[in-house]
Amino acid sequence: MTYAVVAAAFVAASAAVAVLVSIRLGLGPRWWMATALTIAILVVLTIIFDSLMILSDLFRFDDGHLLGIRLWHAPVEDLAWPIAAGFLLPSLAALTAEKGDR
User: Fold this and answer.
1) Taking all residues of the chain, what is their mean pLDDT, rounded to a whole number?
2) How does it sit in the membrane (predicted)?
3) What is the largest distance, in Å, between two alpha-carbon atoms of the chain?
4) pTM for the structure as a whole
5) Alpha carbon distance 67, 5 (integer Å)
6) Dihedral through CA 73, CA 79, CA 81, CA 86, nearest 10?
7) What is the pLDDT of residues 44-69, one digit of tens each?
């Protein structure tokens, strides 16, 4: 199994949770914009810090399991985790927030 398959499954599951929470709680465009901004910031930081760690040889990826697309030095598959977190954490925060705090 490649990293891309695992990454796609996590992103799809977390996006589905975000959509379901959004529908259930009636979260509007403002929530989605905040979530998108959070994901964008996490992706940029991941590209920077993963690339620095890869350049420092702190870890390596098996190239046979990668698609080969890299942003700076970070493989595109590694961006799935901040994207999934960017969907899941705001969704969980919305679910656990008091009604007036949403």
Assistant:
1) 93
2) Multi-pass membrane protein
3) 50
4) 0.88
5) 10
6) 130
7) 999 999 999 999 999 888 888 888 89
The number of beta carbons lying within 10 Å of the beta carbon of residue 95 is 13
Angle between helices 80-96 and 29-55 (to 10 degrees): 140
Q: What is the pLDDT of residue 63?
A: 82
What are 18's two structure tokens? 């975000």
CA distances from 22 to 51, 55, 60, 83 (A): 33, 39, 37, 17
From CA 79, how far away is CA 71, in angstroms rounded?
A: 10
Tokens encoding 101: 């705090």
Q: What residues form DSSP beta bridges with 9? A: none
Domain ranges of the chain: 3-101
